[in-house]
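Ticket #4471: structure output looks truncated?

Reporter: J.K.
Steps to reproduce: submitted the chain below (260 residues) through the standard prediction queue, then opened the result file.
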Amino acid sequence: MKIAIIGAGRVATNLTPAMQQHGVEVVEIWSHTRKAAEVLAQRIGCKATWGEIDVITHDADIYVLALKDAVLTDVAKRLHIGRERALMVHTAGSMPLSLFVDAGHERGGVFYPMQTFSKERVVDFSTVHFFIEAANEADARLLHSLALTLTANEALVHPSTSASRRQLHLAAVFACNFANHCFTLSDTILKENGLDFSVMLPLVEETVAKLRDLPPAEAQTGPAVRRDQNVMGMQRAMLADRPELQQLYTLLSESIIHHS
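Returned output as attached by the reporter:
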């Protein structure tokens, strides 16, 4: 099974080496830019291509489109010519499977690893949940098998639909992206007072660790869940010169009260 990776961003930078390490044959990396393609291709020892879509191989069995949502549909359409029988797969959380049919492809699938990716960190795929979708059962089995190659854990590979995956991605934005933004705001407050965010790490790590034993609502602590109006009033006053942050504090506190 020959796989071509279309993209060289954060997902591809993590997914491609993991595939290679588990014996999956990656034959080509393509990117819009030469440098990005060459850096990732050199890392795993395969061919690099860049620029126009026409230069991408026609001989791969699976094309994994690890691209930004904004360009995914356009690239899928451009990949159609000469690759009509190959399996086209994207890795996006919110994009539908139907985009491949709309682009004229006979076969399409989704290979969504639900994880946050950075080029600077190596993700351990043995703990990652994969959400699989395909236009036909044979391709669904193929993608299921590919996911198991990376995880070796049947419980981490899930059949999905485009609708349920959109909900999953929305939930992930709250659990990951919004939570990380709160870490950013915390970091800003700490730095302005001569402190480093590292002092928060034991607190953050314990907060996450509790979620293995408790539902999030039961693990909630702090002044809002205690209905401690004195503390909340004092902290809102501390943010008087930052109305946007004060408003966010109020909204989050009210939401915690509402859900507890």
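Triage note (M.O.): checked the attachment and the full token line is present. The beta strands are 2-6, 25-31, 47-50, 62-65, 87-90, 107-114, 129-134, 157-159.
Status: closed, working as intended.
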